[in-house]
Design goal:
- With about 425 residues, this protein is an all-alpha fold.
- About 65% of the residues lie in helices and about 0% in strands.
- It has a two-stranded antiparallel sheet with strand order 1-2.
- β1 and β2 form a beta hairpin.
């Protein structure tokens, strides 16, 4: 019992660490840039936090090594991209940096596989919701005690950045919290869910993160559509026809009133300069289209194609603000195709999961996958190392793969031997 308590506490600490809460507390004036984005040097705060997390994670993995190995085998595609990232050191201009960052990505992915094996989808969702509620409580407390930790007084004066280094990541976390709290149910003090749901929505608005707000709204609007997969084929055909009419009307309205919508979001037609940045980066992608420049080394340092892009833009960009473009820069179209195949595989499993899981949480995997995909159009978290976005994606994907493995194994009882899994659940192996 005590071990399980500390293990769940470790999960909360892992989620907070991947949201860079501890780095933000240690460096409240860090600002928008990732500490390692431009510099090629290691930062002590990053080393201490990541080192502690991975060391504890390694011990827990060793304690459940056989079950972890089965989960890794069931969710093996999730390990393909980290391995490709490490392999990209062979053609990177900064091989040591590429290998090191790829290794961090592999470590965080292995940790996600452990968590996806250790906890069911329901427990993972509840632990994530509890972590988000803890963060919101801490943000409120610090707002009155030490506002400099949660309010941006520099580049985006007055915006709420929460326990993060910048308002956009915090907006993403609050969007995920809002989506999750729409689906999760509290076992005790059920009314608290509505309080934290309102807090998540309010903090999302106060962060002024237009991308997170827009993607959250799209994800909420898409929830009824995912529920249609639980209907019969004839019912789905009718609902799809209705939805196509509604989507066509929405697209027509958006195209004819784009300036009004952008003004409401506080943005212009260039999406805060993003479109200019993307146009500048396409020639760089086409110069190395197959394998890219090596995992997360394109923006490192002030040299090469990245320097040319920065000179053309006249600002020190540290990312493409588009996960797909950054993936192409890191691993080329090979990496992009690998991710697409990976995403389609697990998205199909998420659809199958919601058909068997009839409760509200059955919608959680497909809802998060959808948010993850659309949010990366305007932010670069698609394959970022040691970040909440990819950790959550890998955890959910592993949980889906393990659940599917159980179902397949249960249908062939004569060929398997049952092995105790988690809390009385049986994993066939």
């Amino acid at each position: 019992m005590i071990f399980r308590f500390f293990e769940r506490l470790f999960v909360v600490l892992v989620l907070l660490a991947c949201m860079h809460v501890f780095i933000a507390l240690a460096n409240p004036d860090l600002g928008e840039d990732d500490p390692d984005a431009v510099s090629t040097q290691l930062h002590m705060s990053t080393v201490l936090v990541d080192g502690g997390v991975y060391a504890c994670g390694a011990l827990l993995i060793l304690m459940r090594l056989k079950k972890f190995a089965r989960a890794a085998r069931a969710a093996w595609p999730i390990l393909a991209l980290p391995l490709l990232a490490m392999l990209s050191a062979a053609w990177s201009a900064e091989p040591e940096l590429t290998f090191r960052r790829g290794l961090f990505l592999l470590f965080s992915t292995l940790l996600a596989v452990y968590l996806g094996e250790r906890y069911s989808m329901d427990k993972l969702a509840r632990l994530t919701a509890q972590t988000m509620c803890l963060m919101m409580t801490a943000v409120i407390a610090l707002y009155f005690v030490a506002p400099a930790y949660v309010i941006d007084y520099s580049s985006h004066a007055g915006d709420l950045k929460g326990l993060s280094t910048h308002k956009n990541p915090f907006g993403e976390y609050m969007a995920v919290a809002f989506l999750l709290l729409l689906l999760v149910r509290f076992r005790h003090f059920a009314w608290l869910r509505y309080v934290f749901l309102a807090l998540a929505g309010g903090m999302l608005l106060l962060s002024h993160s237009a991308a997170a707000l827009a993607c959250c709204a799209l994800s909420v609007a898409a929830m009824p559509m995912w529920s249609w997969f639980r209907l019969s084929r004839r019912q789905r055909l009718l609902m799809c026809t209705i939805s196509l009419v509604l989507v066509a009307g929405a697209v027509y309205f958006a195209l004819n009133h784009s300036e009004l919508l952008l003004h409401a979001l506080g943005r212009n037609a260039t999406f805060s300069g993003r479109t200019q940045l993307w146009a500048t980066l396409w020639p760089a992608i086409l110069r190395r289209p197959v394998l890219g420049y090596g995992y997360q080394t394109f923006w490192a340092g002030l040299q090469g194609e990245a320097l040319n892009a920065r000179i053309g833009l006249n600002w020190l960009a540290s990312a493409a603000d588009n996960g797909y473009i950054d993936l192409c820069l890191s691993l080329g179209f090979t990496g992009a195709i690998a991710f697409l195949a990976l995403f389609v595989r697990f998205f199909r499993q998420a659809i199958a999961y919601l058909r068997t899981e009839r409760g509200p949480l059955g919608l959680w995997p497909v809802t998060y996958f959808f948010f993850f995909a659309v949010h990366n159009v305007a932010e670069s978290t698609l394959l970022a190392r040691a970040t909440f976005s990819f950790l959550a994606f890998a955890m959910i994907a592993t949980s889906l793969a393990v659940s599917r493995y159980r179902a397949v194994s249960a249908s062939q009882p004569e060929q398997i031997q049952e092995i105790p899994f988690d809390d009385g659940v049986v994993l066939a192996g």
